[in-house]
Amino acid sequence: MTEEGGVSPEPLLDPMTSNIAPQESDQRGYSGTPYTITESRLSTIRSIFMYPYYDKGGNTDNEGDYQKEIQSSSPQVHKNLNFQLPFFGFRFNYTRVSLNGYLEFSDPPPNYEYPCKCRIGNLRDGDIDTRPPGIYFRMERDLRTRQDQMGVEIRERLKWDIREGVIGSETFDPKHAIIVTWKNISFNGGFANALYQTNTFQMVLATDEVYTYAMFNYLNIDWTSHTEAGGDTRKGEGGVSAYIGFNAGNGTQSYEYKPYSQESVIRDLTGTGYANGFKGRHLFRIDEKILLGSCNRDIDGANLPLMFAPESGNMLGGTVVNITGPCFNPDDQIKCKFDVADIVNGYVVDRNRAICVQPPLMVEGYVRLEIAIGPGLYKWKGQYYNPPATAAQKIYFKDTSYHERSPSEIKITWEKQNLTSNDNANIRISLWGYRETTIRPTFIYITDLAENVQNTGEYTIVPSQYRTRTNEFMTDLRFGFIQINLTESIKVNTYTTTQQTVEITPVVWSRPVPLGWYFQFQWENMYGRNWPQYLCNDWLRTDRYLKNFAHVLPQCPCTIQQALADKGKFLPDTDCDKDSNPQCYYNNQAIHCVKTGSPTLDGSEQQCCYDKNGYLMLSYDQQWGSSPRRCHNLGLMPYNEATKVPSLSQWFNDVVPKYLCCLWQEEQAVGCETLRFERRPSQDCVAYQAPGVAGIYGDLHIVTFDDVEYTFNGKGEFVLVKSKTQTDNLEVQGRFEQMDPNAYGEVRATQLTSVVGRGNSSTIVEVRRRPLDARWRYRLDVIANGRRVYFDRPSLKFQHFPGVTVYTPTYILNQSEVIIMFDNGAGLEVLDNQGYMTARVYLPWTFINKTVGLFGNWSFNQEDDFTLPDGNKVSIVSNINDMERVYNDFGSKWMVDDVLDSDKGRALFYREFGRSSANYNNKTFKPQFLMTPEDIIPANRSEQIARTYQICSTKMYECYYDYAMTLNRDLAHYTQNYKATIYQLKETTRTRVISCGILETPRFGRKSNFLFIPGTKVTYECNQDFVLVGDARRTCQADGTWDIPEYGYTQCLRQQEYSSRNAAITWGIILAVLIPLILLIVYIAFRVYKRFVNTEDDSDWQYDDTSKEKAALSMARSPSLEYSDEEFSKSPEPSDKSDSGSILKKRRSYDKSYRTHEPLKDRPDVEFEEKPWDPNTNEYEPESKPMKSPAVESPTSTTSPTSSIQYSVPFSQKPDLVKVDDDDANIPNDNEYAVPLKKSPKERFSSQSSIITAMYLCQQEYSQRAAGVASGITLAVLIPLVLLLVYIAFIFLKRRQKEREEEELHEKEYEEQKMRAQEAAARKLTAAEDLNSDEEDNNSNITSTANGKETTVY
User: Fold this and answer.
1) Distance (Å, rounded) from C-alpha 197 to C-alpha 265?
2) pLDDT band at residue 1115, thresholds of 50, 70 and 90?
3) Which of 445, 690, 1016, 1060 is the most exposed place for a label (fewest CB within 10 A)?
């Protein structure tokens, strides 16, 4: 009673503990003020083990959730959910609640027995809960919008129970829930008093229609098996215990909860699990695959499954990994081993959960994660995915200012909830750097950018604040990362009785960023305002010492169509992808870039970018062109060496120089052009070879590499492609299963349901079609190395396994297209549309004439496509009615099984659920061989025949066949589409793109266009104040070559350089004309001089032939050789013949002396007096003149040639000048005697001098003079050249010596700075230990040292 005498209202019931259900109106939030739950209330309701179930209220019958329809005679009831419940990949909007302790979604197979047979028991004496025994079923829907107390409390309770109970569910927000309770359930077949042997357990399902979690609450277990399973009739013990787990119900997947299911330890379910700190609570995630969310202490083995989240991290470390699997004690010492990284210590959070902080892990791909408890072995193991550094991004930049050389500010944002939910928490923003100065790369702390900043999710970095910073020994860092972590560690509460806490520090990282905005002031102080040029030159000098790598890279395709079609070599470049990232910062004006999917043997990577015209962009044309890379983004084993670290080595060796040489300098700077033309030049597409393509589609139509088309409806597993060599090994196999029945019954045709491939020794990758009812989220299953992998997150879009790269296009969200790239250049593409698969194989030219299988031998010859495993050949298909012969004689021969065959290999498919190749191979299956609709569809169904021709507008016989067999319009449509796509790919790959290759853009100039196809006309222009030299236009000719320049190669010269060059050319022309002319004049003068000398020599001592004859005859006739003065003065008549031919006559040869002292015949033996022999001396002239004959005084008389010779007394007559032998027959007459001619003194002197000149000067002195002249000319040329070379060598050696001294000085300073940095780091670490006691001193220490600790990556 109230004070006013009225009736007091009924007290509000607690929906979490009451047995009376709330009203329906209250459940939808229509009753009044929205309900708000407090933390204390949430803690209270979460401390209750069982979720609420009601036996009263809630409906008109006042029976609450009790299911009175469920009895032994009718053990199940159907329930419509009106929402989607994901389970094992399927989605259901209904369920069936069974008395036998489970929920089902379909009838089990006929041979499947119930895991447990139950009946409703009785209340036992002393039961606190007196609600009637039976089944209770309750649904709570639309929890996200509910505002009533029941809805809010169920939502919050479920949300936090699952988030804290199942790792990896931190963002789960339930949308719908199902609570099913089996209270006091006994076993079937027992005695009457066995009804008091009862079990009470509960299942709670929570879903957001994408993820589904199951909670099993085991309150009491008194019996374990029913009588039909061998249990006794009184207590239900013995026999086979009940089945615990999950079953997809269609023979595809199942999960048995070991060691409890069907084992005697099933009783331990009430004392294990430890989910949310409760014994008897077990949590699972069941939407796609079953993942255990609670620990399991009752199993042992060498390889126990480890559950952890997140499944991937960041290679820089800092990711907090939650671990469950073993059951932990509060004092356990946890050791975590991430692949090859050092062991890190873990921390126990509760019995069901521990955490490990991932260390820096410079590897990529799936790595081992193993844990051990105490001194035990590493039994619990899992596969942890470690993507490259560029795959995960937790810190975002609002603009591209961080790329600039000197930005005014840089704005960053991050998800603050990734660090903590506490908005008042403070964070620290720090800067880290990376370098490869030794074989072991280092990742080093640089400085703090900000401290004690509130975690607001955004911050603005002002680079000018770091103007006075000095980071000695760190100025060689070119790029790094921004790290954000909490200033104070987070305390994680445990669920132990002592409420212990664990402190962790979450960390988030940015993507790699250049560090010019931070180090610009220090670099300017060291190298001047033009510091990018200095750093660029330093990089160029270093890169020249590294080995060349471009020669092993594959050639780029000429067009974007070819690049997209070559799926065996190239995949999209995430930095410039037309589908996901069109920004293309490093390749401006490009619409799409591709790169090689796997590193070469040297670890390099090819990049090919394409412009709006679809043609290849070259670095010779612009700085945004394609750029080969020394290091692949995936790295190379071993990953802990320089140039081999995933992502980081590529940034260090290939991305940083783009900033130093081009982005921070002018495009036409010397360093940028050196980078573009020498160190990272694009490779043209002249030698590109497009792949061969073959495919399979529809109800198994095949197009071979050589364009043979046929239909093969085998049933089983068959070889599609197999190479015949070990160097380029490739195996691709397909599984063909029978088509689903149509409206008229069985369809005797097959379709592709699974494809598997392996290249060389790579990981085996299988792509499998999912069942039709399980395609709501993923269309295809990808199984790599025996486990399913998914591509539903950005960091998982591209996954690399040993020898193979697997990815889905960035625009594909439902996993309906999977591309497999093998290291040998082969590619496999699998697509699915409406449940109909197609597969296409791409092969490089190295596989020509090396393949066999259903796709034929790629040899450009169709006749050998039907090659059998034993090497024999079968004639190819001739018409569409020849398919039965193809089936029997060729296709069926390529069936494979699990037994190795030397010609076909063995089946590569992943086996599960106890299946083998025998479950699929059916050699007795006979498909429909007739191809036309009239032969397939009965005549009485003429509408369907007409419909076939109407749907298949392309008139493909494959379309006719597919629709006539299945009556499925979707299949007919995709058959046409798939075949057309195959031939489009073939046309693209076979279209020859004629390329004229590279045509360099002149420095300080530009080109009118960057095309390189025939007919292209390129016009050159130069920048202002530059002059164009050479051809102003070039044309790409039809034969794929640029026309030959008429005026020389094009250059752009400065005005001064142009003038100097013109002057040099002018002087060159002048000298080119003058030097030959001078040489010619000298030569002519020499010849004239030589002719003149020879003429004088011959005229001195020659005799007239006629005079000699006459003299000889005269001497022969006369006994005495006495002459009168008159006779002596006679001279012979001159001979024209002698005079004219004297120059051309052969010179007389003398023995260098004239023997005048020989005794003449018939003359007294008288000694001649000594006379001067040199006619050039004055002593030669006689003292007295000889007497002249009167006959000589005539002025017209001629003188004898020898009249100038003087003779002394006693000779009054002229002596003989010719010795006459005694042989009279040879004595000449008087007329033949050589009479000396009289000459003037001047002529005499000249005539006598010519003797000596001819004999000595022309022979000896002339040779010496000629040699001297030649030597003089040679020395005049060589000496300046030698001096110039010596000077150049001296300058080079001096410069080299100076560089060596600078390097030694730099190395010495480097070591000194390193020692000081290590000492500073040691001081900082020492001071950090006093952080909690003296925080103010610690901050001062960090600010003053400004140095970091260096971590060497091993």
Assistant:
1) 18
2) very low
3) 1060
Grade residue 804 by pLDDT with cuts at 50, 70 and 90: very high
Is residue 1074 in some structural domain? Answer: no
Inter-CA distances, 898 with 173, 426, 904, Å? 46, 61, 11
Residue 57 three-state SS: strand
DSSP-derived secondary structure letter, 836: E
Any residues with CB less than 8 A from the CB of 532 and at least 6 apart, and which? Answer: 405, 516, 659, 660, 661, 664, 665, 671
Last residue of a domain, one of 521, 543, 558: 521
Q: Confirm if 948 and 932 have CB atoms less than 8 A apart.
A: no
CATH code for the domain in which residue 376 is found = 2.60.40.10
Between residues 1294 and 321, which one has the greater pLDDT?
321
What is the rounded CA–CA span in Å between residue 323 and residue 334?
A: 11
- Cis ω before 310 (30° cut-off from 0): yes
Q: Cα(419)–Cα(395) distance, rounded to whole angstroms?
A: 12
Secondary structure tally for the chain: helices H, strands E: 21, 56
For residue 1250, pLDDT beyond 50: no
Q: What is the pLDDT of residues 810-864, one digit of tens each?
A: 888 889 999 999 999 999 999 999 899 999 999 999 999 999 999 999 999 999 9
Same domain, 499 and 578: no
Rounded to 5°, the CA angle 457-459-461 comes to: 155
* Domain contains 242: yes
Q: Using alpha carbons only, how large is the chain's radius of gyration in Å?
A: 53
The pLDDT tens digits for 285-313 are 999 888 888 888 777 777 788 888 888 88
The reply to whether 1079 falls in a domain is no
Domain that holds residue 797: 692-929
What does the DSSP assignment read for 402-418? Answer: GGSSS-S-EEEEE-GGG
CB 1096 within 8 A of CB 1254: yes
Percent of the chain with pLDDT over 70: 80
Burial 317-353 (b: 16+ CB within 10 A, else e): bbbbbbbbbbbbeeebebbbbbbebeebebbbbbbbb
Instruction: Spell out a b/e string for 1243-1272, using b for 16 or more CB atoms within 10 Å of the CB, else e.
Output: ebebbbbbbebbeebbeeebeeeeeeeeee
Which is it for strands 304-305 and 380-386: parallel, antiparallel or unpaired?
parallel
Q: Residue 189 has what pLDDT? A: 85
Backbone angles phi, psi at 942, to 5 degrees: -65, -30
In the block, which residue shows the tokens 């024999």? 872
* Same structural domain, 567 and 612: yes
Does 837 lie in the same domain as 750? yes
Same domain, 406 and 373: no
Per-residue burial over 235-254, b if 16 or more Cβ lie within 10 Å, else e, is bbbebbbbbbbbbbbeeebe
Instruction: Looking at the structure, tell me whether residues 702 and 738 fall in a common domain.
Output: yes
State residue 1293 phi and psi, 5-degree precision: -65, -40
In eight-state DSSP terms, residue 1201 is T
Identify whether 949 is part of a domain.
no
Q: Which residues contact 669 (CB under 8 A, 6 or more apart)?
A: 533, 536, 661, 662
Instruction: Find tokens 């006091």 and name the residue.
Output: 184
Residue 187 contacts residue 170 (beta carbons within 8 Å): no
Same domain, yes or no, for 137 and 263? yes
1199: nearest Cα among 1117, 1146, 1130, 1264: 1130
pLDDT of residue 1270: 59
Write the pLDDT tens digit of every residue in 580-616.
888 889 998 899 999 999 899 889 999 999 999 899 9
What does the pLDDT average to over 799-809?
92
Q: Which residue has the tokens 């020692």?
A: 1315
At 1200, is the pLDDT very low, low, confident or very high (cuts 50, 70, 90)? Answer: very low
Taking the C-alpha atoms of residue 160 and residue 421, their distance in angstroms, rounded to an integer, is 14
Do 826 and 870 fall within a single domain? yes
Task: Tell me the C-alpha distance between 1030 and 1009, whole Å.
Answer: 18
